[in-house]
Amino acid sequence: MSDSLGPGDERDVLAAEFVLGLLEGEDLADAGMRLSRDADFSAAVDAWHRRLGPLFDGVRDIEPPADLWQRIERRLDAQSRGAGSGEERPNSIVPISGRERAWRRTALAMTALAAGLALVLGLRIAEPERPAPPPVRAQPEPALIASLASDDNSAALAVAVDAGRGTILVTPVRLAPAPGRDRQLWLIPAGATTPVSLGLIRSATPQRIRIPAALAAAFGPEATIALSVEPAGGSPTGLPTGPVIASGTLDRI
């Protein structure tokens, strides 16, 4: 297995990172300049925008609170006055509104999405080289990913289907402790209503779950991945018994 990248692979990875907002500092500036000078790189960026468009369609637009800027100015002014007087001011506790919580949930969902895309790119880079490659470079198969984030921001994860290995890769972005409980992952095939257990998500580190042969065909576009909170050891019934805290649809990229 080779980890080396050809020029086309490097360009595609950089374009994906640019679209996902994963670049910073000099890397971001260099990519921005390359966008205006390198037609192939510009085309790769456009292609990633088209691939990711359906995934972003599922993210609801949220307007900031009308008084947000005034609140920021008041806090900055108060901190400035406190610093000028030499007095220590107690930390202010600012209540988090429902809209701000939704912002955080959206940010978590986007982070999970970025993690999923990075995971998919890693899968493609790590694919073994074929002997005697054809003169025309074959395009990789479209990948399937889903991003999940709970309303209370306690859990966010990305799920990528690795059809070549018959597994799914689960990358937690956030997984808050749940003493005495387990989180269980479920698949709901497109057009179906009955969830099928995929296993427990107990660790905040990425994990690979093997896809049962009988379920392989069910992992397609529009299938739903869901996460529920269950008793320790998982659901005793084979179906969700606790609250479903997050769900996401598998989309092709």
TrEMBL record:
Pfam families: RskA_C. One of its GO terms (molecular function) is sigma factor antagonist activity. Residues 110-244 form the Anti-sigma K factor RskA C-terminal domain. GO terms for cellular component: plasma membrane. It comes from the Bacteria. GO terms for biological process: regulation of translation. PANTHER family: ANTI-SIGMA-K FACTOR RSKA (PTHR37461). This is Anti-sigma K factor RskA C-terminal domain-containing protein. It comes from Allosphingosinicella deserti.
